[in-house]
Amino acid sequence: MEEETKNEADKKARSIISTAIQRCAPEYISEITVTVVALPSDEMKGRIIGREGRNIRTFESVTGVDIIVDDTPEAVILSSYDPFRREIAKMTLERLVTDGRIHPARIEEVYGKAKEELEKHVMEVGEEALFNLGLHNVSKEITRLLGRLKYRTSYGQNVLGHVIEVAKITGLMAAELGLNEKIAKRAGLLHDIGKAIDYEAEGSHTEIGVEVAKKHKEDWRVLNAIASHHGEEDFKCIEAVLVQAADAISASRPGARREVLESYIKRLENLETIASGFEGVQKSYAIQAGREVRIVVEPEKVNDERLITLSKDIASQIEDELTYPGQIKVTVIREARAVGYAK
Q1: Domains of the chain and any CATH numbers
Q2: Burial code of 23-34, b = ≥16 C-beta within 10 A, e = fewer?
Q3: Which secondary-structure segment (H or E) carries 233?
Q4: Closest among 198, 225, 214, 129 to 168, alpha carbons compared
Q5: What is the dihedral angle through the alpha carbons of 145, 151, 157, 160, rounded to the nearest 10 degrees?
Q6: Each residue's pLDDT tens digit in the chain (343 positions)?
Q7: Is 138 within 8 Å of 130 (Cβ atoms)?
Q8: Alpha helices, DSSP H, located in the chain
Q9: Measured CA angle at 270 (ends 268, 275), to 5 deg
């Protein structure tokens, strides 16, 4: 009977997931964000730099984005880990180039207008996503953060497109199982909300997401789905399990995410190499796609006091040597065993 029940459950689960995917069937949503601003002529590069570099310095300090002026003909590159800032900087620079008047006061004025305009657009994008999913009573702050996800990518996948897809798949699976479809959709939509501000706030995107959702009094099932979709907390409801499944389905479809395998492996190797370079480290493992590194130490060489300083030292070296978005968790494990035999 147990065997029969397992087989039936397996068939039913496959049927629910395949039906959900078939009914959702979105287009691939991969997007590579490289911010290159085209210029009408190379003479414009000199005007962007300004006399003794005053224009470029003002632009970088106002926008928080670096301008790379190199040999690329009729183009400059905007460099920043924060995609929202980069988008405002792009709008600002394009307007300055079109206008032709580039000086410090004008840069500040155009930046202010571009920022205001993008904030309005972000609200509209968030409202449109909620309307399309049939979700209501969502705070303005969360709506704004949803809109900001349009300018955030993860492994080349647009995060807003990803969360909308996860919301649809979760909602469809919840409907098949007779659960609350609205709560399931809401949990799917908000599971990555922390990525909208993970460049500005301390903590992983799941921790930030839980704080935001808790602040705006979201349902406990939504909070659990956000906290548990990367295994950082135990599942307390079926909706959270569905969100994790839908998240994996959305991310793992062929073509959904792009990252060069070599660079991905190299990043993980670099993490493990830094950790293994410290005395007393027995083995190191990069896990969670490079979001965490776990280090096992030799108990006879590293005592409990050294354990704390070692985790800080490794974290500090990772900060100095590697470039990465968000944060990397460093966990150092010391296991001491005493074995005795009674004869």
Answers
A1: 2-30+134-252 (1.10.3210.10), 36-119 (3.30.1370.10), 261-334 (3.30.300.20)
A2: ebeeeebbeeee
A3: none
A4: 129
A5: 30
A6: 988 888 888 888 878 877 777 666 555 444 444 578 888 887 888 888 888 888 888 888 888 888 888 777 888 888 877 778 888 898 998 888 888 888 888 889 999 999 899 989 999 999 999 998 898 888 899 999 999 888 887 766 788 888 998 999 999 888 888 889 999 999 999 998 988 887 777 778 888 888 998 898 888 999 999 998 887 788 888 888 999 988 888 876 655 555 555 666 777 888 888 888 888 888 999 887 777 889 999 888 888 888 889 899 998 988 888 776 667 888 999 887 788 888 8
A7: yes
A8: 2-24, 43-49, 54-63, 83-99, 104-133, 140-148, 159-177, 181-190, 205-215, 220-228, 238-252, 261-276, 304-321
A9: 100
3-state secondary structure of 128: helix
Structure tokens at 87: 């988008």
Which residues face 284 on adjacent strands? 295
113 Rama sector, left if φ>0, alpha if ψ -120 to 50, beta otherwise: alpha
What are the tokens at 76?
A: 């400059």
